[in-house]
Amino acid sequence: MPELPEVETVRRRLLPHVEGRQIVAADVRDARLVGRDDPRRVEERLTGRTIVSLDRRGKYLLLRLDGGETLVSHLRMTGNWLVPTGDEPPHARAVLTLSEGGTVVYADARRFGTWDLLTDAEADAYLAARLGPEPIAESFDAGVLLAAFAGRTAPVKALVLDQRVLAGVGNIYADEALHRACIHPDQPAGRLRHAQLVGLAESLRFVLEEGIRQQGASIRDFRDPGGGYGSMQESFRVYGRDGEPCPACGTVIIKTRCAGRGTHICPACQPKPRRRGMRRGPVTLKPL
Ligand SMILES: [Zn+2]
Q: How far is the CA of 95 from the centre of ligand 1 (A)?
């Protein structure tokens, strides 16, 4: 699934093709894309509108329209926005014909992606209910993690993946950030030390910004709107590298499971958390 860097890559590549353009015609070919909405009604509402800007929040792309509406697009597994240069791309689920002769296609092989056409206020509420802070925002730091993790005994990886805790991080960038921060993914989130929170906040920002710089990771299906490939997969330290040596210490990387997801760790850099009972020990000293 595309994560924050891939969705941001799509946003940046798509932006110059849509910003300020009017939607001359909308063709929603797959009713499943718009869920309970009537595809014909969505087409009517989109037609004639101008795309004022293209924003991103977490893994959502937000087409801001004039008239106070927002098209909230989630790519899920295989969705993508494409700017076709010749033949129409395969798996086209919707096509927007734009002013100045432009066309953008929403394609999705597995059809899990969604479009929600909402008023701006509805869109704000929709996103606020689903998304925590942006880990690449200026204000993101260890204090944000401290507040989010306080009192939580869930594994840190489970919380990093929870979009309501942090927006935009998925399995790949979670594994990469936890390895850089030398934190075992099973570590209870609320018991991380301050230095670990500082390291994790810095690592999350680093891997996500690096992912954006490298225009995403092209594993499985991800391509940018021009059909290009990102190169972040070449910079992975642990993700998909089980059996290879850890770039930091040379220990063999293993694949395990955490939070229900395949998880890549270096067992030396990311030592397993001690069980709480072990620290207590059986010894109690009583005064004679
Ligand atoms: Zn290591």
A: 47
